[in-house]
Amino acid sequence: MPIQDRSDPVRLPPGHSLLARLDPVLMRQTAAALASRPGEYGDLFVEEVRHGEVSRRRGRSGPAVVGGWAGVAARRIEPRGGVRHSSAAGVDEATIGALPRRLRGEGAGRRGAPAPEPRSIPCDPHLLDSLAGYLEEVEAETLRALGEGSASSHLDAGVFFSARAQARSQMVAVATSEGDLAEEMRDWSAFSVTLAVEHRGDPALEVAQAGGARGPDRLRALHAPSDIARRLVEAWRETSSAASPPSGETAVILAPGAGGILFHEACGHALEGDRALRDRSALASLVGEVVGPRDLTLVDDPTLDGLPGSRRFDDEGWPTARIVLIEAGRVAGLLLDRATALRAGTAPTGSARRESYRDLPLPRMTNTFVTEATRDPAEIVASVAKGIYVEELGAGRVDTATADFTFRVRRASLVAGGRRVAPLRPCIVSGNGLRALAGIRMIGADLRFDAGAGECGKEGQRARTSVGQPTILIDGLWVRPA
Amino acid sequence: MSGVTEDLLQAALAAGALEAEVFWKRGRGRRVALEPGLQPGSAPVLTVSTTEEEGTAIRVVDRQGRHGFAWIGLPGGESAGASLLEAAWASARHDPEGGAARPPLGPGPRTIVEGKDLRIDDPECMALPPERIAALLLEAAAEAGEGGGAVAVDHLALSEVETTISLANSRGFRGSYTKSLVFLSLALVPAEPGAAAVVEERSACRLADLDLRGCIRDALLRAGPSRPGQAPDASEAVPLLLTPRAAASFLAAIAPWALSGEAGIWKGSSLLIVDDATLAGRPGTTPFDGVGYETRRTILVQDGASVGRLSAEGGNLVRPSYRDLPRLEPAGLLILPAGGLHGGLISDESLALSVHVVEVVPGPTWSLRIRRGEFLRGGVAMGPADGLLWEGPLASLLRGVSVVGGEVGFYHCGVPVGAPGLRIDGLRPLRAESPGRSAQRV
Known about the structure:
A: alpha+beta, 24 strands, B: globular
């Protein structure tokens, strides 16, 4: 793949632009100086982050936090794969100019002139007001919904409500030794709400989380407080009357959006270049081979608008693109950053992510989902004589080398005679990723993404991600009570 | 003492804060990581990463008693003082409850500049050039790779960090210290069926105190192929002799219980569990906590009973970063050693089970899965005991601790922990773990 001309970055408004403060020529020159020998590659990553969060427990606000950081990092990848990386706090031309010396292990030298702009964390009071108001409304709606339609007053019972909302704004600029310069602003906000109700001595806990919105206003538009309250209370009522889950091998229907995390963990991580190229992945050794039905296609797409993993370019400045990981049932591709692309002898896929300027880029997923097929979701449920319908998956564990996985099922219902007949208590679903892919029987036409609160951890770095999938029927998974 | 803390503190008070506290942190670090080459005989891939960071956090209490918290990650926090204060006031406006549940501001007049002999500052931190560190790691990787061919080295990394902390509050506390930390991580992956992928870690304040060979030995033990053991006669109670490494896994698993303050009383338990931020050279050791209280040893569990808890004024508030509010967290969990030598855990000629690797899984029913063990009779190895399983209540597990060894090993099991060998009696039945899952079909 030829190097694309990305020398003309999209210009952002001055208040949202690092390149309005920093000299693009200096950025390019510094990046070029990082790679001084043939075959070397260098890049410069500049970041400024503003963060605000509020929390709330029943009727009371919790600590509010305002913060921000700024920093720069330089990296050189050597022809044989060795990497040198150096980072420092501060976004100013003196710090940037010192990076090539730091990378050579010569220290930072004398600190240069003061930053061209006052160092500050511009605090937007409306941000905290907006987040706090949102949580207050979610709590009021939840308590109202909890008191409605119930013979006994749940408000008399022990009700515990807690919530946390965060908003973060990240300005990123990347310059490379190949002459590229790009910048982008990535806004993100999310919330988590926990409702615990003690009823007849039996506490039941429900959690709602969502995010991915650009700011608090969009968060409210996407997730109205009344909708969150309704979902929480419905889930709690279902849990209160839930039956014991079955044990053993069974058919599992993943509700749309509910099971994407399984594909993220069991397939996506296995196809990240660092694991795949080191022979630590059961799936990567099957590139080109059929592992699932013809209507199974799994993609990672950071170019979709408004999802948590969305971005125009990755954290190495490479343009993002829709990457097909499994196409028509056949393993088709890997997620590669610069370092793993060098090992693979190919071009990167725009999949490099870093939690902050302090961290090295890693090949990672963004928005990962199974594409729509053709089956009517109702037809899928109707085809199952006995099984479970998974409405929400919780935490899980996957061994990418063997593809064995275990997930907690937070919400599910029993399927019998082609109908969902009763809510189930939480259970554990386990299996092997390769056998699960081979066991996919039907894929629906109802793609849905999760609520957007997902956070993926890898090598100590966190990254916001989203997952999605249409209704999917899988045979041969194992279920047991949690 | 950083001028940043003092200047910002005075600025907050001048701007009308009833009380204030400034926390400043500067750190520099280096990580050297080694990945063996992709092809046999190919050169390993070396990654060297260095970082410098500086951050300042401020907590203010306004005239209405509302708490505000703000932080900034930039060098020279004084130049950001005005915006930091503005952000803290904005935070306080969202605290209508008057800060009742907020972390306290800390002690009154006292100055602590690291003076105890805590051995937390390594003059040699990052003194070795990265090439020397890489050579050390290469040697270690070669040693780990000689583990019989059942496993391969995925990566080996050594991180070194040096941090300087400065803390000042309006009650008169002033404190500062410099601390170093080294962290070793060895990841092994299976090279033949039956072996396991493991990550073994060690941490210490000084490179000289890092047990590189012990890390390799324990990683190989954990990753090697399982050698299935035969369950003993169910009528025979077989004492389990946990090595210090296995006891450390045990401690990490029961830590939430030990910290809960809800420990029941189980007569016969010899467990004495403490949290200790004063142990020389240990990663969690500091002269004062995240708000300025002097650190100390907190006895959590004694003779199976909860006798203490971490407390806000007990030197137990931890600040992992300037970005975090102080929070109650253990600094270094430790099972205190008793007189027993490891050999002394074996009392007679009867059958015993020496446990090198154990997985303790909490739940309504606790399970203890022996991943690597040996049957012993009179101290002589009688055969493997891998894959044996015990399930039962936590009380049985704790009550069974009858002898505590005399030599503590320090490990990193997600958190830094220290433990001597333990003898656990009375666990039965031990049975072979089922290789498959229930065959029952729904």
